[in-house]
Amino acid sequence: MVERLVANEKVEGSIPFARSINMFKVITSIFQKYIDARDIRQFKKNFFYYIFFRLIRKKLTSKIKIKIYDFYVFASANKKKMSHSLLRKCDFEDTQEIKLIDSISKNFLIYLFDCGSNFGFYSLYIASKNKDNKVVAFEASPSTFLEMQENIELNNFVSIKINNLAVSNNENLKLTFNESENDWESSISHSDFENKSKIFIKSTTLDAVTKKQVFDDYAVVIKLDVEGHEMNVMDGSLSLIKKCSPLIILEFSKFIKKDKYYNFSYLENFLVKFDYEIYNTKFQITSLEKVLTEINKLPNNMYGIGNNFLIKKGSKIEKIIKNV
């Protein structure tokens, strides 16, 4: 038995515990050096990486700095954080969305509104494509907001402005934000998950944020990942949408169906009024009827069918997507 005296009290097991902590720190340092300066995607399907990571993943004592594409991210050692998936999967899986963004970037500067930014992949990716691109990001979770702020500072990106606000269809309200243990599930619209906490967060709208802005030199992109609150955000963005016909990237989920007003009927009216069409990630036009059929086929433990694109007929984005 190992024991020592601290303030005249016997403390058992402290030296082995301290040694374990130091050993875990060494393991974390070795892993960090192993992946340093190499794009994490290079380790995809790498058998040695897979075994190494499986062995040490629960022993990592801190976040890991990784490179992906032309920027860096602090990937969390906590599997309940979205950024952890970069270590587990060695990629960010929205490959078709990235492909479309790349095609747009070849023709225009991009102005992104990143609603529900989480650790900030979309914001960081677009900022890395061109120093003249601009990003306004919104993250309602205070802790996740700080994580994204760290990633912005890590890359010295001055073109990203991040706000700890909830984007909705009314500004200056205090909305209830349900924080999940899994940070990608947190939502204003529902709490169908293991709820960590409820907080109040101030709201804004994209129309309020962009009231006096001009976007003549930019292709505007709105990315929505707000767990069922997507139609509310669009309702608060109608002036912006009318002004510059943005590409809208959003996930369709069961939670949209549950909203009394801002649901798929709202989307159906929006598509007609603003002359927009739905495209899937194969860059093919699809119908709202097909979207709803896919959602209705989802098993009980699945909530969404992944991202789709809303694109205005005759817009510059439509010309690009038809040639991707």
Map the helices and strands.
Elements: E1 3-6, E2 9-12, H1 14-35, H2 47-56, E3 64-68, E4 71-75, H3 84-89, H4 95-105, E5 109-115, H5 121-129, E6 134-138, H6 142-155, E7 160-163, E8 166-167, E9 174-180, E10 195-204, H7 206-209, E11 218-224, H8 230-235, H9 238-244, E12 247-253, H10 254-258, H11 264-274, E13 276-279, E14 285-286, H12 288-296, E15 304-312, H13 316-321
Parallel strand pairs: 5-6, 5-11, 6-7, 8-10, 11-12
Antiparallel strand pairs: 1-2, 3-4, 9-10, 12-15, 13-14, 13-15
Order of adjacent strands in the largest pleated sheet? 7-6-5-11-12-15-13-14
Structural class: alpha/beta
Q: Can you count the beta strands? A: 15
Round the mean pLDDT to the nearest integer and report it.
93
Unreliable segments of 5+ consecutive residues: 1-12
Query: Regarding quaternary structure, how should these chains be classified?
Result: single chain
Helicity range of the residues?
25-40%
Q: What overall geometry do the principal axes of the alpha carbons give?
A: globular
Total number of helical segments? 13
- Using the 3D structure, state the CATH architecture of the largest domain: 3-Layer(aba) Sandwich
In total, the number of domains comes to 2
CATH C-level class of the largest domain is: Alpha Beta
> Would you tell me which CATH topology of the largest domain applies?
Rossmann fold
Note the main sheet.
8 strands, mixed
CA radius of gyration is 22 Å
Secondary-structure element series: EEHHEEHHEHEHEEEEHEHHEHHEEHEH
Distance N to C terminus:
67 Å
